[in-house]
Amino acid sequence: MMVHQLKYSFFFFRERCQTMDCQKCRGVRIWVVVGMFVLSTVVFLRFDQVLFSTVYTISAGAEFYNATHLLSTSEKTSSSNASVVSTAKAQTPDVKPTSMSTTLKFVNTSVKNGTNGPDKYVFYVCDGGNLCGGFGDRQKGIVAAYLISLMMERKFGVWLTKPCNLNTMLDSSTVKWNINPDTLKDRSSKRIIAIDGYSGRLREKLKTMDLNKEYKEDVLYFSLNLEFVRFIKENKLYKKQLGWMDQLSVSEVYKIVWERLFRLKPELQKQLEPFQQLKTKGLKLVGAQIRMGRNPSVPSDSEVRNNIANIQILWNFYKKFNDSSKYRIFITTDSENVRQKAKQLFPGVFMDIAGKIVHVERSRGSDVCEGFKKVILDQVVLSLCDVLVVSKSGFGRIGAFFRQNENSLYCLKPDKLVRCTTQSPLFAEPSW
Predict the structure, then answer these.
(1) What is the number of structural domains in the chain?
(2) Is 427 contained in some domain?
(3) Residue of 405, 358, 366 whose CA lies nearest to 382
(4) What is the distance of C-alpha 35 from the center of its chain?
(5) Any stretches that span the bilayer, and where are they (predicted)?
(6) How much is the pTM?
């Protein structure tokens, strides 16, 4: 309406000017121009105030998670002191972004007990009672169980004691997950073991399942090993509990949940310092996760995934980074032969986390727990890499999730090395 009034006033004064002498006409025109400028400024400022009061309002009690900080250093930031919010926008299914926002992500994943009476619980459990899979499988299960706890508005716990207790390596971050199930023995309970195909069937059901009708017991123990986030996001019954996930990618959900749950023990954190100091020295970290599958280091693995021939593709790729003035090279692998070959080929730039190579499900021996620590640290190092290559492995894929950077990400295939993103079909098969 204001614009129409301005337009009307301009033509009114133009008609008047036709009956005035030139001097008066000039004066009238000057005042009209000044008036239009002032009024348009007022309109803009009013629109600007409305726009920013709509987009940048932050609700009290919300939490912020920095997409660039480490698993080991996540901290809750007071909303009253925060000045930056997420610029993330909803992604249409066919959009394949090439980079991820590194601004603060505005999410609220807090949960209050939604039931009357004593607290109820959801656990992720891996205690030797059934197969759990490798560390990547366990991470998928933990994230899924945590989201289920949010959906049901229950407290969340992790009871992972195979091959050793997770609480000897990781501390609680925001969520106090270190709960001993023995303290809940007098409560009604149910154990849901859904591994591999059973996990696949359960996640399909979770698209529509009413969890509170399905699981009425006080304590639920879940053993899961597939990726559930994509499926859980489709359940329209829990928009209130999971609304914070709506505009986030699967990788962003994993990073936020993991940092909300875990932080490294101080003694493990210390081992990361040489890698964290690289940027201050002007050096870039080039990393790779190479899953060989069945090999002399893990002879009981279920399949062979890579071989010496296609690993040559990686060595050829690494040659351009064999410059100690610019780069360092890191490899995490399930093969001691691959590890030693990398040291031999790139002695001036190779960096490593000390320790024995183990598979947390399949390896045995007195040093398996020390090997488990190396597994955890290796994945954190993957998240620090400026250039990253991943092979067919949930462990490497989740390391890429934690990295939160789609640039310089490569997927190793049997016959080639290709650029990929965490949202592209090349990154992971739909069944993972």
Answers:
(1) 3
(2) no
(3) 405
(4) 53
(5) 28-47
(6) 0.75
